[in-house]
Amino acid sequence: MFLHKEADELIAAVTYVKENLAEKVEELANQIIVAFNNGKKVILMGNGGSAGDAQHIAAEFVGRFKKERKSFPAIALNTNTSTLTAVGNDYGYDVVFSRQIDGFAQQGDVVIGISTSGNSKNVELALELAKKRGCYTAALLGKDGGTIKDKVDLPIIVKWPNTPRVQECHIFIGHSVCDLVDQAF
Prior knowledge:
The structure is a single chain. The chain has helices at about 1-20, 20-35, 50-60, 80-90, 100-105, 120-130, 165-185, and strands at about 40-45, 75, 110-115, 135-140, 155-160. It has about 180 residues and is an alpha/beta fold. A 5-stranded parallel β-sheet has the order 2-1-3-4-5, sandwiched between helices. Helix 1 packs across helix 7 (about 165-185) and helix 2 packs across helix 7 (about 165-185).
C-alpha cells in the first residue's frame, strides 16, 4: 500500500536523523540556550516549504512549545511580504534575506537557514553575512548539503534523496531543538 511505503520511508529517514545527527541537534539547542541567556535572538529563513518550517520554529520560541515559559526572541525573515517584495524588486531576490540580516542581526545571535537542496542563494548570502557579523550560523539542509554546508558553523544535513522526507525531518529536528531549549528553562 502507498501509505505504508511512505510511512516506512519516513521512519527510515527519522532513524537516520536519530543515528547520525543527534549530537548536532543538541549542539544547536545549546547555542540557542546560550544566546537566549545572553539576551540574543534566533533568526530563521527559508524558501517554500522551508519558509513554512522557519516560521513554524520561530512561533514555537515566541509562543510556547510544550510548557508555559517566557517568550523567546525569534523571527522568520520570510514572513514580511512587504520587505520581501520591496527588497526583491529593488535589489534582487538573492538578497531578500541578507538585506534583513544587515538590519536585524547582532553579534551573538543564532541564525538558521533552511534549504532542502543546500543551494538556496538567498539563504547562503544571508548566512555568510551573519557569520561576518559574529552570529552563530547553522543550516538545516538536505541531499549532500549543497554549497551552504561549507559556509556555516553547524551544517545539519539530512542526507536523503526525497525532498518531502527531508522537510519532515527538518521539522522533527526543529521540534527537538525547541524541546531541549524548553527543558533548559
